[in-house]
Write a sequence for this structure.
């Protein structure tokens, strides 16, 4: 860790295959092992990632404002948003479940969108943020993102189990589609991004080695 | 247990150099003791670990996972008893119920993450293992092997069995307010499918699979 001479593949004229992780010469058109298209840096990935992220951020509003489930209990219809559903869980003394659902359906999507926005801003506007810390955050975002699917699984199981007409009936509501799209788009935004760009652009001064 | 390696100087270029996929730093590859992972010294992305990839072990895990796949998807994962009537739901019925009500984005997401993704992943690994056992002869065997390896990242990203297992626990607790909830054979099969797939994915090493094409 004391070595200050940090050589990147680009400086050496080498380039990592995005698919099979083989090291190729930079001027090769395709990877010699798997035949994938070879590219030293994907500069358009920042734009693609921004586009996906902004769409996801817009969809996050209907996902939280509109009801995500509709429950008919003995003729009485109640609509639940993500947040009111969690409040019900807290009131019915199911705190551990409430924490799981809160993490999966509120904390994770918000953290992901804010985190990716900081990450992309750091690349686009060269913000003076520690790259190390950004990268650590990015790994967390990549790993935790899929856990938002929990809410959709729970809805699908509940809908299939609880359908007894006027007596007791559970149905999904408009926010479910918006929420599903938020998950899809944020996953894509993280996947599409070429993180090597971050390490090219920012100054070494922001990191203390 | 993580080892960090200093980056190398720019004048010695040889096959032992690997590039970090996240920040493009050039790092020299060295032999690692088992159970240890090499991290990129600059951005702390995992670079490589000792291959842990036994073909026969993977074959065994793959066959048991496929044997569990059908019961996990055909038997109900949850049973609800409400005022004398019994309702059951399989994974696929859950997805279909949401789709029937017009929420096909949600339904397809559930179907892909819990049924199609895991199915494709298991079939893909099984075919890869069988191709390796057949000797990976030049021609269609190598081409198919490459095609499958290129898609492995997608298949494993689509597989969300662990989240589904947690989700039927959450649903069971939520619904226990209204009614009695029972777990069925499907629940057992699905949880076992998740465990076997977890071990299979631990055993599987994509870079080791790619390196089989080198010799």
């Amino acid at each position: 860790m004391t070595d200050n001479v940090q050589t990147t593949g680009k400086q050496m004229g080498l380039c990592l295959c995005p698919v099979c992780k083989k090291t190729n010469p930079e001027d090769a058109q395709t990877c010699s092992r798997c035949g994938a298209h070879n590219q030293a840096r994907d500069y358009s990935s920042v734009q693609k990632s921004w586009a996906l992220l902004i769409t996801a951020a817009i969809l996050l509003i209907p996902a939280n404002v509109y009801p995500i489930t509709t429950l008919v209990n003995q003729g009485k219809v109640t609509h639940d948003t993500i947040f009111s559903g969690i409040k019900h869980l807290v009131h019915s003394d199911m705190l551990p479940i409430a924490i799981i659902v809160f993490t999966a359906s509120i904390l994770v999507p918000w953290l992901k969108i804010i985190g990716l926005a900081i990450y992309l801003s750091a690349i686009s506007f060269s913000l003076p943020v520690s790259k190390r810390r950004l990268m650590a955050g990015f790994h967390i975002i990549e790993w935790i993102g899929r856990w938002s699917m929990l809410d959709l699984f729970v809805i699908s199981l509940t809908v299939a189990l609880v359908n007894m007409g006027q007596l007791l009936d559970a149905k999904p509501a408009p926010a479910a589609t918006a929420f599903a799209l938020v998950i899809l788009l944020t996953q894509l935004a993280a996947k599409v991004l070429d993180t090597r760009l971050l390490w090219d652009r920012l100054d070494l001064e922001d990191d203390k080695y | 247990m993580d080892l960090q390696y200093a980056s190398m100087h720019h004048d010695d270029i040889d096959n032992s150099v690997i590039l970090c996929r996240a920040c493009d730093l050039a790092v020299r590859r060295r032999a690692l003791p088992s159970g240890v992972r090499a991290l990129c010294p600059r951005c702390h992305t995992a670079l490589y670990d000792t291959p842990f990839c036994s073909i026969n072990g993977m074959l065994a895990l793959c066959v048991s996972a496929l044997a569990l796949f059908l019961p996990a998807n055909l038997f109900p994962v949850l049973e609800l008893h409400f005022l004398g009537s019994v309702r059951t739901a399989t994974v696929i019925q859950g997805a279909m119920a949401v789709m029937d009500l017009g929420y096909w984005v949600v339904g397809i997401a559930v179907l892909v993450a819990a049924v199609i993704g895991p199915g494709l992943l298991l079939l893909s690994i099984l075919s890869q293992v069988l191709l390796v056992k057949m000797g990976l002869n030049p021609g269609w065997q190598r081409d198919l092997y490459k095609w499958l390896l290129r898609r492995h990242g997608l298949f494993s990203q689509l597989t969300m069995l662990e989240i589904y297992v947690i989700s039927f626990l959450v649903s069971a607790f939520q619904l226990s307010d209204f009614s009695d909830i029972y777990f069925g054979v499907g629940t057992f099969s699905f949880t076992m499918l998740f465990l076997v797939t977890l071990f299979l994915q631990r055993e599987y090493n994509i870079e080791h699979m790619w390196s089989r094409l080198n010799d």
